[in-house]
Structure formats: C-alpha cells, structure tokens
Amino acid sequence: MVDCYDINNNTIEDSVQQRSAEWTLYNSLSYLIPAIFADTLLGAYGDRNGRKINILLGITGLLVSEYGYLLTLSNSAATPYWTTTVIGVFTGFTGYVAMIPVSCYAYLADISNGPTELTLRSGIFSVLQTTASVLGGLLAGLIHDHIGISTAIDIELAFIALGFIYTLVRIPQIPGLQEIERRIRVTTITSLSSVRKLRGFLGDVVALYKECIYTYRRPRVGHRRAFMFITVIVLMLTYTTQVETRTTGIGSVINNFVFRRTENGALGWDSEDLGYWNGMGYMMLIVGTIFGLVVFKKALDFRETTLILIGIVSSTLRTIIIGVAVSDWMMYVANVVGMFAGLVQPAVVSFMTQVVASSEIGRTLALFGIGVDAAFILTAALYTNVYRWTVIAFLRSDMDAWVYFLLIAALLNNGFLAMLWVYCKQRKESGKRNVAVAESREDFASPMAGRRDRPLWSSHDDVSALRRGLKRTTD
C-alpha cells in the first residue's frame, strides 16, 4: 500500500507510476479482448442492417465504463478499483470506443457520392470531434479547481447520454445501397420460400463471421488487398498514437509523462497545464485539418495517399518533440508541428472506398477497429514494460521516459515507409482505374454469392426507389 498523496517523494512516485502501468494493462485486456470479437461481428452486421445499432452499442459501452469509474472515484460508493476491470469485460462486447468512429465513418461512406465528397465529410466529422476535445480541454483547465472528479464524470455522462439520444432520433437504421439492392434481388428470387427466414440467430452470427473472413481473404485486383491491410495498420498506428499522446485518462502515458516532477527535465505539470496544452493541441488539429482539406484536397487535388503521408510525418515529428521536451515551449511547438495529423483518418476512409466494394466498407473498417483493439493491448503491454523500465533505468536523468515516445515514432516511421510503397504502387496502377471502379461496384455481401449474382447498378441509382422496392418485396 502506497500513500499517493506524498507524490513528491521519488520512491513513492516511481511506485505509483509502475502500478498505474500495470492496471492500465489489466483494464485494457478486460475490454479489448472481447472487443476484438465484437468488432468483427458488428462490422458485418452494420453492412447488412445499417450503422445505427452499432453506434448506440458503442455509446452504451462508453456510458457503462465511465459509470464504473464514477462508482470507484466517488466518496459515497468508493467501489474497489478492480471493479472497473470487471465492468470492462461487458463494455468490450459492445465494441467500446473504436466502434463509434468506425460506424460513423462507415455511415458517411454509405451516404456520400464519390471519394472527394467522402473525404470532405469525414474531415468535417473529424474537425467536429476535435472541436469537442478543444472545448473539453479548455473547460477542464478552467474548472478543475472548482469541481470534484465525480462531478466532472457526471458532466461527461450527461454529454454521452445526449449523443445516445441524438443517434437514436436522427440516424436511420438503413443498410447501404448495395445491400438494399442485393436484398431486393434475393427477396424477389426467394419470395415463395420461407427457408431463409427460419435461420436462427447462431446461423446469422456464423454467416456474419464468414463474410468478414471472406472480405479479408479474397483476391483483389492488383495490390489492393495489400493496400487494404497496410492502410488499416497505418490508421491503427496513428489512432493509437493520438490516444497515447493526447488522451488524458486514468493511467494514460501523457498524464504520467507530464506530471512527473522528481527528475531532471521533468515538466511537473498539473491538470490545468495539461488542459490548456491539450486544448491548444486540438485547436491546431482543427486548423491543420481544415487547411489540408481546403488546400491540399480541394484546391491542389492531392491523392488520399498523399494526405495520409503528410499526416504520418506530422504525427511522427510531434511525438519525437514530446519525447525530448524538457520545457513547456517545446511541448507547444510539438502541437504546432503535429497540426496535420488529423488528415489521416478522413483520407483513409475515402481511400478505402476506392480499394474495396461499397458493401464491404463496414467490414473493412471493422478490421481497423480490431487493429485498434489489438494495438491498445500491445501498447498497454509495452507501456507496462518499456515505460516502467525507463522510469527505473533512467531515474533522475534527462533521458527519463523519452524512449517510449521514440518507440512510437519508430513504429510510425515504418508505417510511413509502407504507405509510401502504397503511394508508388497506386500511381503505377492508375491506368487500371476502370478495373478498380468495376470491382468497387461488385456486391460481395455474402461469400456464398456466385459471380452471376453481382449487381451492375450505377452509383447514381435512385436511393428512394431502391428502398421503396425493398419495402414492397418484404411486405
């Protein structure tokens, strides 16, 4: 047992940080392992039935998880900290945090006309997310001395509940165009038979998993299967980097890094300092994302792969500067350098629509969710060992903990090299664009579908007519 209030004592601070790293690993394993299976299933379910349920499940998991922390941190309940790990198992089966942005991006892909529009819409969505983070960071810096942590979580839960209500009311539970058209064909052909209607729940689950596996394994034109996996890995790396270097949750790396105060070069920040720095960082993300979309994409018409490369370089340089920072101004310079990191996610979503069929978007982005879950497990394990090792080995030295950030930068650099290969191959294969477009219109919603069952409809088909046709055939 350690008295955490005497945090200025070298031995106590080191013990607290090591235990924090261990519990970060336990909590990550509790919800991320179930989330890997949930993301696979829910990705295919979203392609079939729409994104609304998936978004609601993700928000529900977030609500339950934060409520568990509220019970632990409140003076009235004061439940043991291990209860957050138990609750994490339940929240993992909802897809947890990764399910929300994955499903939102898939929904944008369903309703957008063309990659350029999708890039812009995804960018706007990313900007709005970042704006919320700016307001949250600034608000945290202003009110942290005036409210308790339980009240802060109450406010957070209220906003999450508003997001749940908005999703419930405003987002329709409608599948994508290709799935609607496929249902019309299948329902028309099998309207006299009720065999398919009698399939049980377990049969549907097995079918959904088969569809996901088929999406990941089937051969594609050129190097497009490699493009899919490399792009997902890059998105996984940049997303994990953002979480590790921007998220200020319990046990997070950035918290432990900036709050250290007992060795040379330690920043010795408090919650107010971190809130202002994070707010400024998210503000720079907004500026960089808007500038990149307007100038790089709309005006200069850069490829999505070019935007991804710019974002990786920006994120890598920011991480390196944070790792070597020994003063406040270096931390703020890092945020300026990392202003284009927000371009990666919208560009990846748009690029995916050019690589896979429209009916596979949800399953492909579910692969990103699975990758994020796995990355968080690996990150937590690395953090538990690498960060603890740097705390012990470089105690009271200028090198304390920077190794962890340089490790992240090295992984990002590998992602940059892989994405550079994708960029070069894409340019060489640009002459095969007609083949890619033809493939993107094929319906691979079911691994059992034969080649003759693939639809040949245009992306300009009347959506309302398709939906009316689906309703008539199912009535």
UniProtKB/TrEMBL annotation:
Positions of the UniProt region annotated as Disordered: 445-475
Regions of compositional bias (Basic and acidic residues) in chain numbering: 445-465
KW Calcium (keyword) present: no
Transmembrane segments: 29-46, 53-70, 82-108, 120-143, 149-169, 226-243, 276-295, 307-326, 332-353, 365-383, 403-424
Membrane topology reported for the UniProt record: Multi-pass membrane protein
Keywords: Membrane, Transmembrane, Transmembrane helix
The protein's name in its UniProt record: Proton-coupled folate transporter
Domain of life: Eukaryota
Subcellular location, record wording: Membrane
Gene Ontology molecular function: transmembrane transporter activity
Cross-referenced Gene3D superfamilies: MFS general substrate transporter like domains
Coiled-coil residues: none
GO terms for cellular component: membrane
